[in-house]
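Example record

Each entry pairs one chain with its bound ligand, DAU.
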Amino acid sequence: MSFEKSILITGGAGFIGSHVVRLFVTQYPQYQTVNLDKLTYAGNLENLKDIDSLPNYVFEHGDIVDEAYIDGLFAKYQFDGVIHLAAESHVDRSITDPMAFVKTNVIGTCNLLNAAKNTWKGNMESKRFYHVSTDEVYGELHDPSEFFVETTSYDPRSPYSASKASSDHFVRAYHNTYGLPVVVSNCSNNYGPNHFPEKLIPLMINNIKNGKPLPVYGKGENVRDWLYVIDHARAIDAIFHNGKNGDTYNIGGNNEWKNLDLVHLLCDLMDQKLGNPQGKSKELITYVTDRAGHDLRYAIDATKLMTELGWNPSVTFEEGLSKTVDWYLNNWDWIENITSGDYQKYYSSMYENKTS
Ligand code: NAD
Ligand code: DAU
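Structure tokens for the complex follow.
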């Protein structure tokens, strides 16, 4: 079978990556979409079982830190485009094991950049290297009238955000130095189906369902800007196809929530869906020791993406959260499979004896 383009998506078995892979495989049958994933604890091929037999989809099991492997993969497929999502993504894990983040997020990204540069040398015209990054590289906000824009100075404050900031700098350096055709996006917090239950929203859904304590860090006053994962995938599609070479786009939902308010909302929604008396789940809220170096507030100004590329979120937060809770309740075996193994060890080391 011959294809118009061959696209490499890294980290496609993870939370956001699986939604991006599904969008590309189903909307662009003329592209061959190659999903490269190491299948770490966060990678799960179950996320893609509905599309994995389509003829334009290929899965490759491998590690972006393995330079020779990455060079071989580029030689095999002669990719026209790369959408790079593979990463260590959890801030708490970066506090206990920062080197894993240096290896995958920095060295892994540089291996991909080198392979693209060498493969596309002398023929960069219709090529594109898309690096998916985070709003956390901008640091934290205090003044409620301030938002992160594309020109906000970098100020990463956790090992995770420092590793992502470093990779962003390398991507832009390869554009400036070698003319690599790159595009970067920095997105706010995602939520939705297939979100690994170490992160706030799925962790709370899982604990509410199981009647376990709901661990709120500090006083629950930190603010995050939540975006439905499918809207992030739609933004990536728009930027990959129509973004300007060398540019950066901020992606966000204009949807800020204090953690405690969000946990209250989830408790009410879960009580309603589970048929519990209202107020039952809120009794599970437990304040625990704060995250070290916990950033206070993130908030994205996505005006550039909306005005230049015509992107807008497709769902309200209420709709997205309701769909998300329904997805978890209707796919409970997905979360049970994940939480039955090593997750238990992680959970005990993170949360036991941490009540503040
Ligand atoms: P995730 O942890 O759910 O998935 C990461 C995927 O990368 C997994 O499938 C994992 O197996 C794979 N992976 C990890 N190390 C690898 C390696 N060395 N080689 C190959 N594959 C490897 O992450 P996510 O939440 O889906 O985030 C995806 C990307 O989006 C990341 O780059 C993250 O920084 C960025 N991002 C995430 C959010 C968010 O709210 N989750 C927001 C903005 C940006
Ligand atoms: O902003 C984008 C980033 O959002 C992404 O780059 C990261 O990959 C992604 O993990 C996410 O980072 P956060 O640290 O904001 O997400 P997390 O779900 O871990 O935490 C959200 C907020 O909830 C944060 O203020 C910490 C708090 N929290 C989290 C957990 C897991 C709790 O209060 N209790 C918890 O148990």
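The chain has a mean pLDDT of 97.
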